[in-house]
Amino acid sequence: MILEHYIDGAHVPSISGDTFTSLEPATNRPYLTVSAGHAEDVAAAVAAARKAFGDGPWPRMPAGERAATLRAIAAAIETRDERLAALECRDTGLPITQARGQARRAAQNFRFFADVITTLGEDVYRVGSAQLNYVLRKPVGVAGLITPWNTPFMLATWKLAPALAAGCPVVLKPAEWSPLSAGLLPEIMEEAGLPPGVFNLVHGIGEDAGAALVEHPDVPVISFTGESATGRVIMRAAAGHLKTLSMELGGKSPLIVFDDADLERALDAAVFGVFSLNGERCTASSRVLAHAPIYAEFTARLAERAAQVRVGVPDDPATELGALIHPDHHAQVSEYVRIGVAEGARLAAGGARPPHLPEGNYLSATVFADVTPDMRVFQEEIFGPVVCVTPFGSESEAVELANATRYGLAAYVWTSDLRRAHRMAQAVESGMVWVNSQNVRDLRTPFGGVKASGLGREGGRHSIDVYTAAHIVHLAT
Ligand code: NAD
């Protein structure tokens, strides 16, 4: 069986007939053949979406009707939650217990944006009794959605839900390393009654199908989640068309622990933040900055906890850390372990393939201690189960170290001093800061990063802003 594109309400192969193969991370055996989209397939999908935008019902529907369809999509996702978990587990190597949460999060995205779109007002400005100026939000047109391979289904819905809520037909290009779960979307959209042409899906390699979507003149907005380096390429390509861009990019987020923190909770957060989801999480707390008085103790306890993280086959419910997505990624993460050792960081835990897992993309939970800011392992996003621990002496040094990378996605601060918590939270260069809290998401708040971690914000009405243009009417009364 071939996993095909979905264009204008129909499953279709690539016009060229080309395919690519997907590997199962647990074994690296090829197990899935996928249609490889090129520019002509993207053009067909964009044409269908453009038709749905130009004369279809979707952009013209009252928000309440669109919201009802979004809620039906949420319900259709939930009825597939075990299936989705099994697909994500097999396709991405995510532990099954963690894959199980994905359907709930995805359904929540659709329900949330159904609420947003039905409660969102439009602004009116009065100038005495002589003039009324009002703002209409109009869907911008076909939205190009390009998504990464980590938690691929959930992250696709984080873009699909607001784009559809805003009235934009979409073309989704999922990551080539994890195409499987997007294959559920056509049946979900059909079951929910989404009109044909509103949701289109083109599989393919990023530099080919993804680039064609970015280059297509009839796609005025690109919402991208992926690496900062890819974001740069996309920005350059989109510049020629002056497109709206929303960029959710990489991170190297610090978790800063002061000596007055609840160390037990900070430790739980550190372990969760970098070892759950296989460490393949954009907001992973991949740099721990520990206050000098507790540095030795915290590092030792983190290493102890890392050694207890159960690495195993993804479909075993006892597994806490599964298989990394792809042999190339496994090689890259392993190379960072080698680099860290060569740079003089102290390997306090992990760093190797567990002996009981001779094949597949496995790596033990890895802790580097005594990491200094000049090291590549401190500076570069590893995107795997590898954490670097660095000591700091003073609050100002903590800020300096926290801000010493080109990234600025998330930060985590652990302290029981309220005034210090505020000072730190405001001094850290990141789009989001969690204080004495794990990575708890509130879908209403702006999500995104500064510096190399992104441009623009999604979340709540910020997402709707990405997919709508403000249209201002100035009216003399
Ligand atoms: P990636 O940049 O390699 O690929 C992301 C997507 O872009 C894929 O669909 C890929 O096919 C496509 N692509 C690649 N080259 C392209 C091009 N030239 N033109 C158009 N599309 C192209 O990223 P990845 O490895 O799939 O994902 C991991 C990265 O994503 C990490 O850096 C992670 O931090 C980041 N991420 C960020 C967030 C966030 O919200 N900030 C969330 C999840 C992941």
TrEMBL record:
Answer whether the UniProt record assigns the keyword Cell membrane to this protein. Answer: no
For this UniProt record, the keywords arranged alphabetically read as follows: NAD, Oxidoreductase
Q: Which residues form the Aldehyde dehydrogenase domain?
A: 16-471
> Catalytic positions?
248
Q: Which SUPFAM superfamilies match?
A: ALDH-like
- Which family does the similarity line name? Belongs to the aldehyde dehydrogenase family.
Q: Which PANTHER family match?
A: 2-AMINOMUCONIC SEMIALDEHYDE DEHYDROGENASE
Record-given protein name:
5-carboxymethyl-2-hydroxymuconate semialdehyde dehydrogenase
Q: What is the lineage of its organism?
A: Bacteria, Bacillati, Actinomycetota, Actinomycetes, Streptosporangiales
